[in-house]
Amino acid sequence: AALVVGPAGTAQRVAAAVLRHPRDGVRPVGVVTDEPDGIGGLPVLTTGEEVQRALIQNGVREVLAVRPSARAGQGPLLRALAESGCTVWEVDPDVPSFRTGDRLAGFPCRRLDLGTGRRGRTGKRVLDVVVSGTLLLLVSPWLLLCAVALRMSEGPGVVFRQERIGKDGRPFTLLKFRTHRPVDAHESATRWSVANERQMSWFCRFLRRTSLDELLQLWNVLRGDMSLVGPRPERPYFVAKFGQTHPGYAARHRVRTGITGLAQVHGLRGDTSIEDRARFDNAYIDDWSLWQDVCIVLRTAAALVRPTGS
Question: Which helix (H) or strand (E) holds 188?
Fold first, then answer.
């Protein structure tokens, strides 16, 4: 037995298709949605009590998350279902196929690892706090030196603040050292990369090429906005754009975003393939372990010896 989570019309369409293929071994018994639109089909569940009742009465062990539901609105629900013992599958009815993955009633699907486990999440958070706190203490003289040098060479406003999208689609304010000054807020929010880097001062180029302008994000990690390791956070404009054009991109927001990640240690930084980044980010989430985080942190530290910039 399975529940289908997502927009009512699309979820009912997926459920009907799956019911027509009983050999796949999945039998939808209800649709979970925020806003039922009156479309007939399976029972529509809109409250936590109704979902819990369906889980118990039908012995639900599978959840089909129609792909948009992996975005902000249904993230907490999907994690709760995973923690209750359900296997959660992401189903995308609007693309030809995932590059890798299984199929259900002809739809591309793949398993989502939303239930990292309380112990694993606690271990990851402890690692974040210990490492970010220690590094902030160790590099605080360097942070002060960078701030003074930027103030003297570039003028006021040495800290760059920008809205980024984090876990479950929640926005937060990311901190960096300011190495360039956008023309206006629109350019800051919608320009993909910095043009005319050669016109920057040598110190700003040095900060960018060594990624030392990212050091202030250790404060974001300590606050809990980010993690040391995870998908890189992006601006709302690009999250919306990439979520529509790249399958699996929205699913990156199942976890906290990070300063570094599996995509970054494989060279996917700056102006590189978004599709490749999303694939590496989702592979990191699906195969997560605390040891993998440690390895990525060590590989990132080693890469700083031979920086190529962001």
Answer: helix 185-190
Residue 150 within any structural domain of the chain: yes
Kindly report, residue by residue over 195-207, the tens digit of the pLDDT. 555 567 777 777 7
CA distances 270 to 163, 187, 307, Å, are 18, 17, 13
Question: Model pTM?
Answer: 0.63
DSSP codes, 272-303: --HHHHHHHHHHHHHT--HHHHHHHHHHHHHH
Residues 68 and 167 in one domain: no
83 falls within a domain = yes
The percent of residues above 70 in pLDDT, for the chain, comes to 83
Answer yes or no: is 309 within a domain: no
Q: In what order do the strands lie in the sheet with 28-32?
A: 44-45, 28-32, 2-5, 62-66, 87-91, 107-112, 102-104
Length of the chain: 310
Domain boundary among 64, 84, 112: 112
Number of domains observed in the structure of the chain: 2
Provide the token pair at 67. Answer: 């792909």
Contact 257, 230 (CB under 8 A): yes
Q: Is 38 helix (H, G, I), strand (E, B) or coil?
A: coil
